[in-house]
Amino acid sequence: MRVKVQVLLLxxxxxxxxxxxxxxxxxxxxxxxxxxGNSLSDTGNYLAVGAPAFPFIGQLxxxxxxxxxxxxxxxxxxxxxxxxxxxxxxxxLPPYLKLVEGPFVKTGVDFAxxxxxxxxxxxxxxxxxxxxxxxxxxxxxxxxxxxxxKSSICTTKWECDDYFKxxxxxxxxxxxxxxxxxxxFTSGSSLEQVRSFVPAVIEAIINATSALIEEGAVxxxxxxxxxxxxxxxYLTAYQGSNQTTINPRTGCMDAFNAFSQYHNRLLxxxxxxxxxxxxxxRIMYADFYGASIRFYNMPQFFGKGFFxxxxxxxxxxxxxxxxxxxxxxxxRESLLTACCGGGGGPFNFNPNRVCGAPGSTVCKETTxxxxxxxxxxxxxxxxxxxxxxxxxxxxxxxxxxxxx
Length: 404
Ligand SMILES: *[C@@H]1O[C@H](CO)[C@@H](O)[C@H](O)[C@H]1NC(C)=O
Ligand SMILES: *[C@@H]1O[C@H](CO)[C@@H](O)[C@H](O)[C@H]1NC(C)=O
Ligand SMILES: *[C@@H]1O[C@H](CO)[C@@H](O)[C@H](O)[C@H]1NC(C)=O
Hints:
Elements lengths: L15 E2 L14 E5 L8 H4 L31 H8 L8 H4 L8 E3 L10 H5 L13 H12 L6 H8 L2 E5 L4 H8 L7 H5 L2 H17 L4 E5 L8 H7 L15 H24 L4 E5 L1 H10 L7 E10 L2 E10 L13 E2 L19 E2 L16 H12 L4 E2 L8
Parallel strand pairs: 2-3, 2-4, 4-5, 5-6
Antiparallel strand pairs: 1-7, 6-11, 7-8, 9-10
Helix pairs in contact: 2-13, 9-11, 12-13
The structure holds 2-acetamido-2-deoxy-beta-D-glucopyranose (3 copies).
One 2-acetamido-2-deoxy-beta-D-glucopyranose binds next to loops.
């Protein structure tokens, strides 16, 4: 077939753009945030107990990009929960375990713990996986902390309800570690076996979400799991394994991404039922999968760059094709490699020489990488994900709504 291609306009305009730089919603919608989860949103709880299984989060290069010091966050900078707090005009959430002796904080508290599972330790102990747990501070333990903290801030039901009606409760991401324990911290479990954990994990998340509603929460954001088939630690552990095939477009492992989507499907269904049960609440699902799979599908759209617009005439139909040329976005070559790590493989992830360990190195430009340390994401990646969740299409129903 003959296709007549006519370049009508070459660079009619150069537009410097930054994806998702739409206006932030007005601050003041929520006056406080309470967060539950794992290392994806731990702002310092695990470090407060000494970070025994992963002391490196207490040292640079963790924190090097934004805080210029290690705060206990498992990233080079901010986490999604930090960007949510920023967008609301609220301070970063202090970790609960440091708050006990510290100042009283009314604008929010973080109960998330690095390594935390949705299910209680007993579930893993019963399956001989107990010794692999990083922490026993599971979701229900974090809920217990919240109840204790709550009694110091309000006493009567009326007083608590009045306070919590302007609070945002974020439950997750949580559940990722329930799968890391059998799939990543040990070999010998198959994806099929671990699939049987998913309904219990979802039940634990729903139990905690319901319990928070019973405590007075009305605005709840519940994120799903990330595409674990794109995570360097997983890619390293399963390279050459017969459990998976590599997707030629993204370079990620299809079977593991399908696993994440299975978890997310069950979560979405369970949240639907929860909304019916508690019609007075606003229960939002945050699609972390969708917000991050974009990086692997079209890395060129993330970062500062230029639009190149081409008008192509095919038959008599004019097609406008817009190319984005990224100057400092994620690079295709570094999409699946950890920025900080101990080398020794195609993904710069070495479980015996993790990020921060002697001999590990840090990439020159952290903003070109999605993965910070092979498991957790960079400040740059979390920023894009947060923008997609806060302003964009990745929260349902949307996070922002008019105050009635
Ligand atoms: C969820 O709550 C129900 C009712 O309290 C309980 O029976 C069940 O064991 C809980 N499930 C999990 C996974 O925590
Ligand atoms: C994958 O390999 C393991 C042993 O290496 C074997 O037991 C298993 O049956 C294989 N699975 C498939 C689907 O081929
Ligand atoms: C485009 O042109 C080709 C032949 O030149 C023709 O076969 C085709 O049907 C046309 N397509 C459209 C959409 O008009």
